[in-house]
Amino acid sequence: MTTQVSPSLGFLSGLTYSHGIHHADTGPVARLLLTHEPPRRAGETVEWIEAGMRALSFCWGLSPIEEEPRYIGSRISLHHGIARLDYGDAWWELRIPGTGKEWQEHVAAGGPVRLTLSFEPTPVGRTQEDLSRFIEAGIQAGTVRWGTTRARPRSRLDVRTSRPGA
After folding, report:
1. What are the tens digits of pLDDT across the range 93-134?
2. Are strands 70-79 and 144-151 parallel, antiparallel or unpaired?
3. CA 121, CA 36: separation in Å to the nearest integer?
4. N or C: which end of the chain has fewer CB within 10 A?
5. Nearest to 86 by CA among 118, 113, 110, 46
């Protein structure tokens, strides 16, 4: 018997999110990068963060970056402009802050979302260039995982891009 353990709410509160739309030759793909803040509270270590991120990767069934990203099921829900990510807990979902209208419209239309996760804590004061270097170093070190998800079908109906009668 396999028991799946999801990370604690205390661990999840340290997650950081970066998102955007990548315009590939095959069409747009929403991007969602999950990392964790560096250790900041008593008891937090880089090893603790890595273990928690590995647990999240296992919960989603993410594949190593060297492999094609596998489909991990419909994990995104959208409701009243709030995007959430199901990580396998029976009661809780992760709220994805600041996704923006373009990202949400793409997801609501059924577009793919490439979920990328790094086992290592994110650098402090990160710029887009810092994140690119961080992910490239993680790819070289084998500490990045990814997968593809979409919005749950019901969520696609819940998101409106305009008000009725407007």
Report:
1. 899 998 989 999 999 999 999 999 999 998 766 777 888 888
2. parallel
3. 5
4. N
5. 113
